[in-house]
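Key result, reporting period 2: structure in, sequence out.
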């Protein structure tokens, strides 16, 4: 029984990696990520002076990342949750996918997990760009725990809830 659970977990992880590879290699993801990263860096560059007083790029300031990047994450979430669900239908492979010995919940779960991995990658980009900006400005007091808690402990859950609403809307349309 334990070996069967590990097999199911491994299969789910491998299927989600295939879907993640599809997401990361696609042009909309690359363009939206570069757009969000550009807006993020512009915003970081403008937060250096407040009322004529220079400000240090402390971690909590780096966590107030651009709304453009948040929108990029949400757009990618909506876009790829729909694209992954409809991918077999769009490529006329739906009947072939239906005949595979993999359960439907595993295919849906792998797509759900792939979108969460995509969100994690985009939030990691926010974290690394914030650290890189801190280094650029000569600020070396990194608070990695604050980055992890702010991005992956709080913000990730908001994007997962957004994904749940998206998945629910996609199920209703089928």
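The corresponding designed sequence is given below.
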């Amino acid at each position: 029984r334990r070996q069967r659970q590990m097999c199911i977990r491994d299969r789910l992880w491998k299927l989600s990696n295939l879907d993640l590879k599809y997401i990361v290699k696609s042009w909309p993801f690359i363009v939206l990520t570069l757009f969000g990263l550009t807006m993020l860096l512009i915003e970081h560059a403008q937060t250096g002076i407040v009322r004529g007083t220079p400000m240090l790029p402390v971690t909590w300031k780096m966590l107030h990342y651009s709304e453009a990047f948040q929108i990029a994450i949400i757009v990618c979430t909506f876009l790829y949750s729909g694209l992954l669900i409809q991918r077999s239908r769009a490529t006329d492979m739906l009947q072939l996918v239906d005949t595979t010995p993999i359960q439907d919940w595993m295919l849906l779960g792998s797509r759900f997990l792939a979108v969460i991995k995509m969100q994690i990658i985009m939030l990691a980009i926010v974290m690394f760009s914030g650290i890189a900006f801190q280094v650029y400005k000569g600020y070396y007091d990194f608070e990695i725990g604050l980055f992890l808690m702010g991005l992956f402990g709080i913000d990730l859950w908001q994007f997962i809830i957004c994904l749940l609403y998206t998945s629910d809307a996609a199920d209703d349309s089928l």
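The helical segments are 2-24, 27-46, 59-62, 67-90, 94-98, 104-136, 144-173. The two ends are 34 Å apart (CA to CA). This case is discussed further under Risks and Mitigation.
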